[in-house]
Amino acid sequence: MLFSEIAYGPIHSRRLGTSLGMELMPLTHKLCTFNCVYCECGWNTPVTHPVLPTREEVKAALETKLCALQKEGTALDVITFSGNGEPTLHPDFHGIIEDTCALRDQYCPKAKVSVLSNSTQLGRPDVVQALHLCDNRILKLDAATDGMMRRIDLPVNEQLTVKTLIGWLAQFNGDFTLQTCFLRGEHNGQVIDNTTPEELEAWYQAVETLHPKQIMIYVIDRKTPEEHLEKIPREQMESIAAPLIEKGFEVSISA
Fold it and tell me: Percentage of the chain surpassing pLDDT 70?
């Protein structure tokens, strides 16, 4: 499932409401620093020189869409950067966010600017600065042990560690939404399960350390590139959320 337009939708997001999607990665293939086994966009496609939309093209596409929606009387809840890979990979990400905030203020001031990120570019100051301009920083941590993170997310940088990710996430002092997909299955003969007691204990400790203002936990909802995956039942997702809710964390469940 790839998005073929820079500005697409709006669509109804089960987590965010009426969302206008923004695509900063190639329109023909997935480009990401992760190769998650559950990603609805499929596997990464190796490309030597990927073609990304320019900052000017993104701004023009967004303004055209916002003008049309304003004339239709369509209200937006959110402008969301996600799509065919990791949006913060774009070299002009900071400038694009600045343009987006300005256009939002002009055309739909009640809408939020949101970024769904896998957290792998948080070592770049320009990306962190750009995310601080956004209303919603929705940042991924699918597992809190290196082994499970690598089995689920298949990072392109095989040396990436959970400790590094947590250190980068800590820069926001809790002012972000932590997003985690829970799943079971296998890939290339390796068991995948971030719902075991050991994995959950490590994840709970990470949550306590980071203390995000909101936590989004969800399950696979569409066709996945790895076929041998299992959707976690709603009852188990509620059980996973319960200890955090008891401690006062705001937890939303999409299951």
Answer: 99
What is the DSSP pairing of strand 183-187 with strand 229-231?
A: antiparallel
Give the residue among 124, 132, 40, 62 at the shortest CA–CA distance from 90: 124
When pLDDT is averaged across residues 163-170 and rounded to a whole number, the result is 98
The residue with tokens 């203020």 is 105
What pLDDT digit, counting tens, does each position of 207-223 carry?
999 999 999 999 998 89
Residue type, 147: G
Neighbours of 224 (CB within 10 A): 18
Strands 7-13 and 183-187, how do they pair? Answer: unpaired
Q: What is the CA radius of gyration of the chain?
A: 18
What b-and-e string marks burial along 20-56, b requiring 16 or more CB atoms within 10 Å of the CB?
Answer: bbbbbbbbebbbbbbbbbbbebeebeeeeeeebbebe
Q: What is the distance between the alpha carbons of residues 155 and 137, in angstroms, rounded to a whole number?
A: 21
Residue 239: pLDDT over 70? yes
CA–CA gap between residue 17 and residue 243 (Å, rounded): 26
The answer to whether the beta carbons of residues 244 and 204 sit under 8 Å apart is: yes
What DSSP letter does each residue of 46-79 carry, written as one string?
--SS-----HHHHHHHHHHHHHHHHHHT---SEE
Q: Do 40 and 85 touch, CB atoms closer than 8 A? A: no
Distance, CA of 255 to CA of 188 (rounded, Å): 26
- Average pLDDT, rounded, for the chain: 95
Q: What is the mean pLDDT of residues 151-176?
A: 97
